[in-house]
Amino acid sequence: MADEKKIARPASDEAADPFSEVRRGLQQRFGEDVAVTLAPGGDLVVTVGRERLLAVCRYLKEEQGFDYPILVTGVDRGDGLESVIHLGQMTSPRVIVLKTPVSYDDPQVPSVTSIWAGADWHERESYDLMGIRYEGHPDLRRILLPEEWDEYPHPLRKEFKLDSPGGKFSITE
Questions:
Q1: Please, what are the domains in the chain?
Q2: In the prediction, which pLDDT does 11 show?
Q3: What is the pTM of this model?
Q4: C-alpha distances in angstroms, 102 versus 76, 79, 132, 173?
Q5: Nearest residue to 87 (alpha-carbon basis) of 154, 16, 26
Q6: Residue 91: partners with Cβ closer than 8 Å, 6 or more residues away
């Protein structure tokens, strides 16, 4: 018996790819409406248009157990904006990153507060600092900037320059 060699068993799909079920489910349910990739750090990245965002979010919560938003933010890519939502599970270390591209001319995405109430202040911050409007948000108003900020670029966009000439929020030396 001491001479018996241990036979290596192939790793299960779940061990090799903890998102295999989620990935299959997203592709079966939403097909070409979603692009699914694995980030170098191991998180699943799902890119979805704003038309399908709420359906994908409901699926991830109700059928895949992603029960809270870790982060909702915006990114200025230089050629447009992205609304980015990191989703987590209380029972797992898995993280899904949802990306929704939006244009500078029409920076609107559906609010996910009807699915995860915890997205409320995150969306307000992204609205305030990036200018992304979250349609259907219950109280989309400024959370960090003064009310009179509307005539200025949003401070986390690439176009923003704090020391712009003549601006009432400019820096003086």
A1: 17-143 (3.30.460.80)
A2: 46
A3: 0.84
A4: 10, 10, 8, 37
A5: 26
A6: 65
